Amino acid sequence: MVTVVTTDAFQSIISETGIPVVIDFWASWCGPCRSFASVIDRLAEEFEGRIYFGKINVDDEPKLAEKFRVMSIPTVGIFSGGELKETLVGSRGYQDMVNLLELYLI
Questions:
Q1: Beta strands in the chain, from DSSP E residues, in sequence order
Q2: Is the residue at 41 inside a domain?
Q3: Residue 104 appears among annotated catalytic residues
Q4: Of 1, 25, 41, 58, which sits with the fewest C-beta atoms within 10 Å of its C-beta?
Q5: Catalytic hit among 5, 14, 22, 33
Q6: pLDDT digits over 22-73, tens only?
Q7: Residue 62, domain CATH
Q8: What share of the chain has pLDDT > 70, as a percent?
Q9: How far apart are alpha carbons 58 and 32 in whole angstroms?
């Protein structure tokens, strides 16, 4: 399951979940974001219980987008131990994402 993340909940999600966190920065008007959403949904199913997946709408949460210098969307932030470990800009394929995320489970 992919959770809608707000500014109020963000810090507790990245620091208290105890598992890696993937945050998809997106917007409803962004075509590539809408197509990438299906990849994120599939990944959330595949990694359920092992990786937390959240979405941040940059129009609804501009301060978070600014904090992480999101200039293009979709942008994915991968957090572990409460810290940003990696940022991916642009849409990615399912298998590319699986290969990358498996590195965070070792």
A1: 2-4, 21-26, 52-57, 75-80, 83-89
A2: yes
A3: no
A4: 1
A5: 33
A6: 999 999 999 999 999 999 999 999 999 999 999 999 999 999 999 999 999 9
A7: 3.40.30.10
A8: 100
A9: 14
For residue 30, indicate whether it is catalytic. Answer: yes
Q: What are phi and psi of 68, to 5 degrees?
A: -100, 15
Matching residue, tokens 């131990």: 81
For residue 106, being part of any structural domain is answered with no
CB within 8 A of 84, min separation 6: which ones? 68, 77, 78
The closest alpha carbon to 6, from 74, 54, 68, belongs to 54
Question: What's the structural domain count of the chain?
Answer: 1
Q: Which two tokens stand for residue 97?
A: 């994402």
Alpha carbon 74 to chain centroid, angstroms: 9
